[in-house]
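Here is one such tokenized protein:
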Amino acid sequence: MEEFSYRASIEDEDERIDKWISNALENLSRSYIQKLIKDNLVFVNDKPRKASYHIKSDDEIRFQIPDAVKPEILEENIPISILYEDDDVLIVDKPKGMVVHPAPGHYSGTLVNAVMFHCKDRLSGINGVMRPGIVHRIDRDTTGSLIICKNDNAHNSIAAQLKEHSITRKYRAIVHGRITDEEGCINAPIGRDNKDRKKMAVNEQNGKSAVTHYKVLRAYKEYTYIECQLETGRTHQIRVHMTSIGHPLLGDTVYGNHKSNFHTEGQTLHAMTIGFIHPSTGKYLEVSAPLPEYFERILDNLK
């Protein structure tokens, strides 16, 4: 078990302990730090503290990080569509219906199971035993480009770019209704829905900043084909934002209640393009995933 010890300064005054540790060690996620706190592995002045504790100047902060545990997640020979690969990153085209990483009650058939078979032991371990290589995710029924990190250096680099909102992320979607403006920007905070904690919603009181740019690619009588570019990456961001302006995604049974004649198996949302500064070369790399067949078929029918 690795142990860290710091002395808080006047600049650290009144910052939450979980946020402070997250800033001190960028390779640890906030949720992982909160788990360390819950497991009584974080001490301030030799006393365990809750995540909500606010630091005081001259506090002695000490925390322990357990040794990495080998994942008990099985490698599975599941075919994956590779868009790009080198020694640092793997970019895959995730199919519809595939969960990105294992979760309680769902330990097989995920992208992680497939990637573990493909990469063997060449995956970053920062996000713990359940998410080797995973630095970001897309929803189960969303298709398209996803970055897998093969080492911790690549993971730290991509995570920092995500935090700075400097990664290019362009999505394609089909929404209900005809959007008359050629383009627009939705700037509305997203947080848990106050009425249904399983859903996200525009939440002015408790939400986090969220910005989505969209432009119309083709308008039909009852639907609009759009491209969305994210500035931020909140959970269900595009789905929530488009619903908030009266244009829910076609096939979205969670945030939309519009019926259609199309068989979509979930929302029509495709993570087409992803671009970032390569962690080793320092050069900009951009990769695009082709539209899936079902998406093309719907567009053809709309014509």
About this structure: The chain is about 20% helix and 30% strand. Helices lie at 17-24, 30-38, 111-119, 152-163, 237-244, 293-302. Residues 152-163 form the longest helix (12 residues).
